[in-house]
């Protein structure tokens, strides 16, 4: 059975993901000096209470928050240039939600977000989603002006060089999963993977797409090619906590 949240990434996320991503972003966003602090984020002294539907929701919430963090300067500039910010109907406490939803909106090429029948709607998310979508033309134009201003072919240009290099290195690393032996045995994992078309090889040097290896030192750890990361995270083995991402 497919988990609904795994199917919606380019159509948007459930409201709960935006709320959790905004709470995470509120705690990690870059505080700027008073003379530069044009965009106000409200108070973040309290630890946010977060409830995640499942492990996938947790992961995409953190990914969305950290994506917004990478592009914080660009997103703030887009909001200011488009005149979408300040908006006096949106309090400072919701600015983090505004920023993470703006990142997602531009990632969807300013297309409308899909609402799913079983989704539990959150009033603040709906309000800010409608507000940003009403500004979509001005926001897209502001993004285009930023790209022209900085001679950027894509928004990846706005990621600091050190972070770009770190991401390149990380994306090339093999993906490791622990086998949750409280739920499944190595033999059953191997059988399940073979049914899905995976082949066991002796070491990472033998990787060829749908292959995996058993760690030489930890026999309850499986190693996969980095290119399979997203596909692996959509397996039932992962969703059912039988494989745990290292």
UniProtKB/TrEMBL annotation:
<dbReference type="GO" id="GO:0032259">
    <property type="term" value="P:methylation"/>
</dbReference>
<feature type="domain" description="NOL1/NOP2/NSUN 5/7 ferredoxin-like">
    <location>
        <begin position="179"/>
        <end position="227"/>
    </location>
</feature>
<dbReference type="Pfam" id="PF21148">
    <property type="entry name" value="NSUN5_fdxn-like"/>
</dbReference>
<dbReference type="GO" id="GO:0008168">
    <property type="term" value="F:methyltransferase activity"/>
</dbReference>
<keyword id="KW-0489">Methyltransferase</keyword>
<keyword id="KW-0808">Transferase</keyword>
<dbReference type="InterPro" id="IPR042620">
    <property type="entry name" value="NSUN7"/>
</dbReference>
<dbReference type="InterPro" id="IPR049561">
    <property type="entry name" value="NSUN5_7_fdxn-like"/>
</dbReference>
<protein>
    <submittedName>
        <fullName>NSUN7 methyltransferase</fullName>
    </submittedName>
</protein>
């Amino acid at each position: 059975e497919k988990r609904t949240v795994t199917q919606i990434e380019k159509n948007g996320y459930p409201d709960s993901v935006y709320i959790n991503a905004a709470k995470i972003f509120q705690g990690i966003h870059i505080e700027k000096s008073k003379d530069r602090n044009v965009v106000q984020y409200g108070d973040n002294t309290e630890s946010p209470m977060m409830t995640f539907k499942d492990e996938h929701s947790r992961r995409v919430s953190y990914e969305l928050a950290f994506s917004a963090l990478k592009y914080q300067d660009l997103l703030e500039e887009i909001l200011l240039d488009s005149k979408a910010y300040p908006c006096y109907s949106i309090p400072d406490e919701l600015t983090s939600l505004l920023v993470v939803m703006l990142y997602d909106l531009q990632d969807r090429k300013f297309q409308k977000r899909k609402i799913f029948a079983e989704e539990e709607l959150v009033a603040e998310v709906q309000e800010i989603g409608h507000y940003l979508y009403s500004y979509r033309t001005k926001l897209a134009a502001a993004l285009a002006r930023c790209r022209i201003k900085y001679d950027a072919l894509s928004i990846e240009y706005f990621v600091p060089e050190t972070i770009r290099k770190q991401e390149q290195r990380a994306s090339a690393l093999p993906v490791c999963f622990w086998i949750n032996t409280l739920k499944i045995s190595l033999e059953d994992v191997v059988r399940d993977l073979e049914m899905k078309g995976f082949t066991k090889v002796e070491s990472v040097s033998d990787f060829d797409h749908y292959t995996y290896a058993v760690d030489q030192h930890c026999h309850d750890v499986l190693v996969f090619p980095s290119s399979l990361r997203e596909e692996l995270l959509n397996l039932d083995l992962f969703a059912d906590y039988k494989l745990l991402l290292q």
